[in-house]
Write the structure tokens for this entry.
Amino acid sequence: MNLEDIAKLAGVSRSTVSRVINNDPRVSDRARIRVQAVIAEHNFHPNAAARSLASRRTRVIGLVIPAIASKIFSDPWFPIVIQGCMDGCQEQDLSLMLLMESETDPHAANRLIERMLRGRQLDGVVLATSLADTTGTRLLQESDFPFVVIGRTTTIDATWVDIDNRHAAYLATQHLLSHNRRKAAMLAGPATLVSSLDRIDGFRAAASDAGIPATVHDADYDQRRAHDIAVSLLSGPDAPDAIFAASDTMAVGVIQAARRLGIEIPRSLGVMGFDDIRPDRTAALGISNIRQPAREEGRRAVDLLHARIADPAHPHQQVWLPTELIVRTSCGYHNNTEAERLDAGVERKEVAIGNLDVD
């Protein structure tokens, strides 16, 4: 069965069938319903290659993740964002191609984008994170290739979706320090990421406003590295009594370090995380943090990209998604009753926190 057969059965022209298949609005509701009924009755599937040639679109988009491949599968943020992108693709009848760069060289993602532009096998791409180095986004912009960034861009006009990382980090640090803390440290993500730099700015601003001395340490969103840095900090003569970990993965590393050294949380050390991607785990560990809508970020990014593919001349959009401060017990006790109960050893539990060897 071909388009001509569908047209005869539906009592319309071949061009009308083609418009219905390609979601062209220039079709009456009555004709659209007749064509769709015939397509459904005969289980007709248009030839994808022919559709691509006719529309110059593949209905395939790419998700570029400029990170070491191992981090994609160890950091819980990435799988949730990927799932959100898949949600968006399902809504828009698109296919998703995952494009990963396994090199540690910060320019590797740019080379990946260059190869993708030469192939021109995609309708557009979502960049899974905003890099401080904007060479890749400039390549996309100069090539008039549709793209959307998860994370705000700092030097070019682009369409993106993000959370207010600076404000969220400020609120997180403010809550952490509100429990009579005297010295703070932050375990940050890579300085190559705009989101990481924004969280550092928020932390420093909150510490400065509170008059609390503070230091920042690059832990690369890595649990092992966070653990090792925390052990070094907490073993030193000028140990902090408050640590803001810019991801829950790193917060777990800090908790492991504290347990190794016999430091009580939150009595002697307050810990704040960020993400709340796995609330079952963070709740069991009592980790206070900032909850960000990672799945919605992915879904909205695809939605924005689909709109840009349909209308490349549409003005760029910048979408801010809300975050939420989740207060548990890792920063300090909620109230005196809880403190007394924990001091008495009632309901105190040692929660398993992973397979990292900390001996």
Remarks:
- The domain at 3-55 is CATH 1.10.260.40 (434 Repressor (Amino-terminal Domain)).
